[in-house]
């Protein structure tokens, strides 16, 4: 009797092992499958011409995505310039002076913004900048992306600052260093690695955003013309090409996806490797 | 060896602020003429390298909205603006016809080369009254054809579209039920079907979905090897869309002064019944020198641009209309 | 002494200002959405949320099809991703050798970094034909959207579940082993019940993510404001309709209706995310 029951329990155990292994295989295999597929479809369309030409009219071959690559770099770059400092300094405030109603409100607002769908942020940027300016522009796209970045960077900064051991702060204060200098020149650098990787990850995240750019950056078939004009970006180009019926555009979409994926992956892998010694 | 200058060019692109005196004009609207517009703007950029005319095809509805809001310098639509929409605009706006095109019923049926359809049948399909390819009404128009016993997957636009306007304008003329139940506009409440974004989206869906039936601008069907049906015209002939049949449809119409005219269900013997003009929406009075820039482009468009239309499947403007437009654009400032 | 305090005060005010920017933006966002959607609420009242007539021609708007689509596609995603994610987390925490677990976790976490538009791209060219092969007449539709969303939220469920499973106190597990339990019995009897609040929190968090997802969904859902029990049929979601119709909402009523949907979407995600954080923070503080 005991033997039979024990055998059955062992079988159930083995079954569970097998099923969960399958789940894990599916979950982790998905990423590999995705990367592999994109690489396979996209690699054949990548050429020097593709990376340095701007799009050609519909139906003509030989167009490229140079303007999208440059456009993405510019829009994301400016978004980072606007969003990262605000996020970091906001995070410093919450970590250092984070008690009281004001801090609670800020934290709540950040959580709200974190959860707002990016399309709604785009809506907001349209109303805030595009409509009064009477123009679609790279600037409005960057602002929309910055709105998305700030709460991410802010919460991340706060968390890493809180991880800094109190002893370091106390030691510096005991030496007579003014509080603000302790914050900026002792605590912040100590948590620097975590904060910077957080900022990098936020950049990678917004680099892939499409929805908020549709009615802010608008897209441009030519190379961009400064910050106050529409501009092409990689994710928007991928979207436009993907839903079209043209074989040529589909191939370009895969290649563009490969480039975007390579960038996002590179940033994520770097960030993770950098953060590996998780203790500060 | 040539890579270095190209690499430097990319770096320069990144580093340069609004370089040189490059002027960007932005337009948005109809996906219907996107192939010819993108060709025109590209060619015009070659003639005038300091000018970029950036056109985004977001649908006629979008073109009308954005030009009303003045977030773009010109709009484009193949459904003329309604009185209500015109009332929202504070100054005078011109509908400048550019080319003529056709909206075709594109389908995805294995082995059927020459499908024939009629207006009333199309209306019934889009109303959801005819649901299968083997319906007697379709079989009657296509005797002997091996129609599959399958449901028809209807595809329409999910965005506001002049192509839609032309299509439903025709359906309303041939089907009183359509006129009453759904009506005519750039965006309607579709009784049945999947939504695709832009002509591109609809063409994409039709191409990928077996037994689908959708409506797209002729060039989108041709460029993608999607089969399209011949439509029974008012004179009783089955006409497959093409430049001669579209031109024939325009021949009978009397062009009003504001150019807002419908040429669907035209009377001529060789006329294709779902033809339409497409227009650029341009303010009569523009700020800075935008008016002059636009006027120059339009003059080029009326002369050299028209010649490029035929290769892409659009019919050029009839000579009488061309002359009329040349006079009207003189008023643009 | 005084200089120190002034320096500190200046500093504190300055960075409080920066922190305030986010507060300002959040308030401005909510206010802007409320203002632009006012027309819709005035015209239709709360019935806007449960009528299903979306007619831009007649300026009659009812948002039910979009609420339905968002809800159903997200629920489907959860139904698929939760068992898969929890199963994977169990394997990676309890049953797999450490090295393997870390590599696989890495791959799963990276899945979260894949941009939505790229998942949509894969959806159109792989998933949709696959669905058609499986018998769906359209390929695009509610189930397809649910599947794509499932892949998007899978990493969140897996990582959070794994984190929570790792916090199960060893003594508890060891007690079970001492009684002769198999590994699975320990998981089922101790780890999972212990982790349940965390898993629920993860579910809410993922739900919040799925609700707001735009690009991947609009590329595979069919974009038809349709309410149907058949999951193979096309549908629409709140985020997708805004993306498709915003640039061209020709009438003010139409634009206002779209903004009203945006406001609703924002409200729902805020509530869901709030609930998630509440659950996960409570977890963190009680450990």
Account of the 3D structure:
The complex is a heterotrimer of chains A (280), B (333) and C (287). The model of chain A has no long low-confidence stretch (mean pLDDT 88). Chain A is an all-alpha fold and 280 residues long. Chain A starts with a helix and ends in a 5-residue tail after the last helix. Chain A is built from twelve helices and no strands. Chain B is α/β, with parallel strands linked by helices and 333 residues long. In chain B, the strands form two sheets. In chain B, strands 1, 2, 3, 4, 6, 7, 8, 9, 12 and 13 form a ten-stranded mixed beta sheet that branches. In chain B, helix 2 links the parallel strand 1 (23-29) and strand 2. In chain B, helix 2 (34-47) packs across helix 12 and helix 5 crosses helix 7 (162-174). The longest helix of chain B has 20 residues, at 290-309. Chain C is mostly helical and 287 residues long. Chain C has helices at 2-44, 64-95, 98-111, 116-133, 142-166, 170-178, 183-212, 215-220, 238-245, 252-286. The longest helix of chain C has 43 residues, at 2-44. The mean pLDDT of chain C is 86. Classes of the chains: A mainly alpha (280), B alpha/beta (333), C mainly alpha (287). At the A-C interface, helix 1, helix 3, helix 4, helix 5 and helix 6 of A face helix 1, helix 2, helix 3, helix 4 and helix 5 of C.
Approximate shape of chain B: globular
The residue-averaged pLDDT of chain C reads 86
Structural class of chain C: mainly alpha
From the N-terminal CA to the C-terminal CA of chain B, the straight-line distance is 48 Å
> Over all CA atoms, what is the radius of gyration of chain B?
21 Å
Q: Residue ranges of chain B: pLDDT <50 for 5 or more in a row? A: none
Order of helices and strands of chain B: HEHEHEHEEHHEHHEHEHEEEHEHEH
How much of the residues of chain B is beta strand, in percent? 15-25%
Q: Could you estimate the helical fraction of the residues of chain B in percent?
A: 25-40%
What composes the largest sheet of chain B? 10 strands, mixed
Overall mean pLDDT of chain B: 86
Condensed summary:
The complex is a heterotrimer of chains A (280), B (333) and C (287). Chain A has 280 residues and is an all-alpha fold.
